[in-house]
């Protein structure tokens, strides 16, 4: 039994006969015109040709409509008069109606044709199924399909593809999949159209993995998916977060000559770069050009940005130059990436050159462009250059944003210019640019660092009032600031208050408190804090343990050191090279080299490789203990490990030789250091000290001249050591002469230098000169020490 295909509204001529909007005077001319056109269309070999003819496509819409109505009348009247049209005429008319989306009429004419016993073919069935699917009457469509199958009609895959396409497009793709799976029982094989319809349907309902599986199935059958299908699956997988699967699919379909469109390629490249799949992104970019797909400005921008973020500036610049060579449109985006990349690499001058090149090419920099440069210069501590760019930017009418101000405020804080930082913050607020958490954190840290904790806490209150949420970075800065001022107990109260208010504090906040305790020698309080951390589930990290080790070593508490090391071991943590170096230094200073060597062996056995600092610490302590042979052994081992000794390493031996009076050997070593560009003011001072101990004052004075000739400037210590020797001998004339030489060379005497010359004046009876020096010392802003008064007033 044939299913009824009639819609709720029965067919009648007035449904599709439309009134032609013409004036009465022109109506007769219009009808004549339509009749003439109709005759022309009838003369065509088929209705399809008539619809596609140049005549009909150039007519007004209502003219075409009238011609179609005349033609439809022929078939409709023929059937209403019980005359049977041939099947070719019927299928042509039905498919023509589909072209103009008159689906109801298709169903009406089909019902009439069946009633009259018109011979039906696959084209007629196709038209009817298309109409039902377009009307989203899928149940009737499936009934229709069952009816056709039950009539024993020989059907091809085309008819099933129509139904599969309709269901897939209408969101009922799983029903379509079932039909596809049943094709084998009907002796049919799914073709490219079948698969493409299903895959697009699966993508429509976000079933991208199933879509990819069908693509795999297609390729296994030797079928090649269309570009639009591949693009949909690739983009869906990408948006679903499976960039690797998307990349592999592209790799697979490329082998059969199919490529996604450029939009999808660009999107996939961008996602691969964001996900850190950089090798895949580079490979995909290279294959694009090999396959003849020309990268556009977006493609190049994505790759340039990826290279810049990874610090690969040379490949980024090569791509930029290729853009120019290939005459690809240049936009602000690749320039912003290049500028930001160079700034992050510490190459702000090169970044500014790129900015000028960008302007020369007629592109207008954005706030992002300038902010990258401002931030870069601030991190290089070139805050004045950053401030110049800020004025250049605002002068061009480009408004700074929160990130611009924050970068510049951070730069001022790093440069100890807190007044300028505060002023810029006020300017930011006046310009209605809203500070964020980072802005406040930067200012709070700056004020804490330079001792103004009161202002830091004011900013904290202001931050909360504005609805911003302080974080562990905020709290750590405040805790550190209080501890730095010796207000550790207040810092502990602050921590307790925060915890009562359920604010989260991490190990960095507690490490700041631990450092405060250790600095004051309150190791018991520090260890109590670690217990508190454990109770709250906050794990001690290497930084926290490093602070504790620093405290125990500073206060020579080896008992606590052993306890801390055991606790670290129990928690599976191992000291790093910094901790081991600190312990080695402490043992060395206690002259407990047995424990130092044992600690060294443990360090090496744990796989912690000693560095140049570690070796130098050992050599320094061994030299100071007079164990120079053992120090030399460490020096040779250092060389064998491929480590190059620096000026500090050699200074250890130099200090030993000069201290023991081996001045010939000391000078030979120093000359070698001078040739290797390792000599400096400190190393010269070691030689000067050694000469002064041996009363070789003239040789020491000669070294001051040698220093200047070698481009090394003597400092206050260099002069003070020789001045002291003159004073000790009672040679005030020689001492004052050297003092004047020091002042002439632009050096400002420190407290020690003043005290030495005052001492010299006092022992030679020049008390008025001594008091003059004391007054001069006070005027210079130096504090008069106990040593000063001890010289001026004996017995104090």
Automatic annotation (TrEMBL):
Superkingdom of source: Eukaryota
Primary gene name: LOC107819597
PROSITE patterns xref list: PPR
Key words of the record: Repeat
Name used for this protein in its record: Pentatricopeptide repeat-containing protein At5g59900 isoform X3
Species, as recorded: Nicotiana tabacum
Positions annotated as PPR repeat: 121-155, 156-190, 191-225, 261-295, 296-330, 331-365, 366-400, 401-435, 436-470, 471-505, 506-540, 541-575, 576-610, 611-645, 680-714, 715-749, 750-784
Keyword check for Metal-binding: no
InterPro entries the record matches: PPR_rpt (IPR002885), TPR-like_helical_dom_sf (IPR011990)
